[in-house]
């Protein structure tokens, strides 16, 4: 599922970005659209610098106090991903980049992301893990696929004795 989602994201996102840029360009004109994209990039770079420093300071303080920096690591990761999105030209990526970077929207994104990760972790603990067989390949039962059969593992087969006379030919 993830490879398909990534493929679609890399295929559809540029098309969506171009479509939105063209629509904005038709509404406000070509040069104002370019100026708006440049202004978003400059503003994004400034916010990334400011919020990146804040996230780094919070991470260092938590490490210095001997605490577990869960929230701080999540914030640092969101600022990093948001920064990449903000520096990518386009209005759609800038929208999500600002969501990840701004200090008043980042906690909401962090909570949503942590709930998603918690659900995935609990599903993995329940045994709902992805196996090779789920992708269309051959699934060979292994540990954790149910109750193991009692007793020693037996592989049925046939013993063929070699005939020395046929080996000489």
Automatic annotation (TrEMBL):
List the lineage, top down: Bacteria, Bacillati, Actinomycetota, Actinomycetes, Streptosporangiales
The record lists the organism as Actinoallomurus spadix
On whether Transmembrane helix is a keyword of this UniProt record, the answer is yes
- What keywords sit in the KW lines? Membrane, Transmembrane, Transmembrane helix
Enumerate composition-biased segments (Acidic residues): 160-169
Location of the region described as Disordered in the Swiss-Prot/TrEMBL record: 139-169
The reply on keyword Chloroplast is: no
Q: Name one Pfam family in it.
A: FxsA
Q: Locate the transmembrane regions by residue number.
A: 28-48, 78-102
Name of the protein in its database record? FxsA family protein
């Amino acid at each position: 599922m993830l490879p398909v989602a990534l493929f679609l994201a890399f295929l559809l996102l540029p098309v969506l970005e171009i479509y939105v840029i063209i629509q904005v360009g038709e509404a406000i004109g070509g040069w104002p659209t370019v100026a708006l994209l440049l202004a978003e990039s400059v503003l994004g770079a400034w916010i990334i610098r400011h919020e990146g420093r804040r996230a780094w300071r919070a991470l260092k303080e938590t490490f210095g106090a001997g605490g577990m920096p869960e929230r701080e690591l999540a914030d640092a990761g969101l600022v990093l991903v948001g920064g990449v999105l903000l520096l990518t030209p386009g209005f759609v990526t800038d929208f999500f980049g600002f969501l990840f970077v701004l200090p008043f929207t980042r906690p909401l994104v962090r909570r949503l992301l942590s709930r998603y990760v918690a659900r995935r972790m609990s599903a993995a603990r329940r045994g709902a893990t992805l196996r090779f067989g789920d992708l269309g390949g051959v699934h060979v039962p292994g540990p954790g696929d149910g109750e193991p059969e009692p007793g020693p593992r037996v592989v049925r087969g046939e013993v063929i004795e070699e005939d020395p006379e046929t080996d000489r030919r």
